From TrEMBL:
This is Glycosyltransferase Family 4. Pfam families: Glyco_transf_4 (PF13439), Glycos_transf_1 (PF00534). Keywords: Transferase. GO terms for molecular function: glycosyltransferase activity. Residues 14-159 form the Glycosyltransferase subfamily 4-like N-terminal domain. Residues 168-234 form the Glycosyl transferase family domain. The lineage of its organism: Bacteria, Bacillati, Bacillota, Bacilli, Bacillales.
Amino acid sequence: MKLLYVVHFHAPMGGLRENVYSSALYMQKQGADVYVMLKPGPLRDRLDAKGIHTIAAEFGASVSAVKKCVQQLEDLNVAFDLIHFHPGLSKYPATKYARLHNIPIVETYHGMWHDDLNKHAGLLDAIITVSEGIKLNLQKRLKRLYERYYVIPNGYDSELFKTPVFYDINKKEVNIGFVARLDEDKQFIMDILILAANHVKHHLDIKINIHIIGDGTEKDTFIKLIEEALNNTAIQSSIKAGW
């Protein structure tokens, strides 16, 4: 089986990158011949190191940008059995190339952003969502093609994790870990930590350590909002951010 992933992203690190990386390695392990079209950077280097075929691309919505990406795929001269992509600029070369060669194509949604699904849903053989909630959100916007939806939850390798150490309610110190890409489209996730900060500030007898594992265009604004939530309280707080 020859499989093509087409993926566009802005930040060099994040959940989408890890999802594509894990998926590509898993399919390679199952015997598939895996290709990934993406922009140059850390993810491409990691995939190359694992023997995954990569195609460096500069994505765009213009006719010339899409044409260039499609031509790169044509030059490979590979008869792909399936194309998989995520929302964003990757949809343009992915759907065009699939139409040209009549290749089955699927799209995976990880969040609330629908990326004008109604405009290209008819080109898809399957619409994958990582939760029932995301599926229902998309179906509210696109009231057709219900038979093309499949829910495949994100998973993790339990062997990579030790038995968790649960919080001791008698401790006077709380460690909060928050892992996310800190960009505008992740606002709904960042709001959760801001709500948590507003909640714990009423517990004046504890020390709070907030570890923000992530970076992005909204990093400074995000940290400022958390600091403001904890300002003028007796709480001792420590906020650290970055990858």
